[in-house]
Structure formats: structure tokens, C-alpha cells
Amino acid sequence: MEGEEQCRLYYKTDKLLFGTSILPPGKKGSVDHGHKTGHEIFYCARGKVACHFPRVNRYEELDEGDIVIIPPGEPHELFNQGTEEALVCWSLAPPD
């Protein structure tokens, strides 16, 4: 658990990580302070989420099928803006 976000790591190598995050309606995850060298991709598989970038106070809204790429060192957090459980698939390459 990261805040109210349930994270699960499915795959890890020295080149990439792959996992999922589940968020109940109206809930948010903890702030991830960013990754030193890796680019992270969020893919919204179910629901509607907002990815907040607190350093620049910017939001990226994701509906089902949308992605956002997070550059290295960029803090971010997820908010479920929908009325159903949200599922976000994520990958980080290379892992920290």
C-alpha cells in the first residue's frame, strides 16, 4: 500500500519494472518522489485518474486507454477521479 493505492510489482529485471496500482473511487496514492534515471509510463486500464506533478502543480487527466510518460526525477501522485475502482499499469525503465 502507498497511501490508499494498492501497488503490485509483477516483473522486475535490471532493465525494467512492471506493475499495477489500484485506487478506490475518490482516493489518492502517496507522492512518488521520482526516479533517478528511469522514465515511468502510466497506462490507465480502467477508470479515470489524474496524475499530479506537485513540483510544477500540473495535472494530467487519464481516461481508459490514455498514457502519461513521467521523466526522471519528476515527483508524481495518482488521484482516482471516477466512480469506480481505477487500475493503472506502470512500467519503469531502467529501474533505480
CATH class: Mainly Beta
In sequence order, what are the helices and strands, one letter per element? EEEEEEEE
Radius of gyration: 12 Å
Mean pLDDT: 96
Largest pleated sheet: 5 strands, antiparallel
- Annotated CATH architecture: Sandwich
Total number of helices: 0
| CATH superfamily grouping | Jelly Rolls
Q: In total, how many domains does the architecture comprise?
A: 1
Helical/strand content category: mainly beta
CATH fold field value? Jelly Rolls
Task: Report helical residue fraction.
Answer: under 10%
**How many distinct beta strands?**
8
How much of the sequence lies in strands comes to over 45%
Principal-axis shape equals globular
Low-confidence stretches: none
C-alpha end-to-end distance: 19 Å
Strand order of the largest sheet: 1-2-8-3-6
Description:
- There is one protein chain.
- Helix content is 0%, strand content 52%.
- The chain is built from no helices and 8 strands.
- The strands form 2 sheets. It has a 5-stranded antiparallel beta sheet with strand order 1-2-8-3-6, with no helix packed on it.
Summarize it.
By secondary structure, the chain is mainly beta. 0% of the residues lie in helices and 52% in strands.
Descriptive terms for the model:
single chain; 96 residues; mainly beta; Jelly Rolls; 3-stranded antiparallel beta sheet; 0% helix
Indicate the topology:
Elements: E1 6-12, E2 17-23, E3 39-46, E4 48-53, E5 58-63, E6 67-70, E7 77-80, E8 86-93
Antiparallel strand pairs: 1-2, 2-8, 3-6, 3-8, 4-5, 4-7
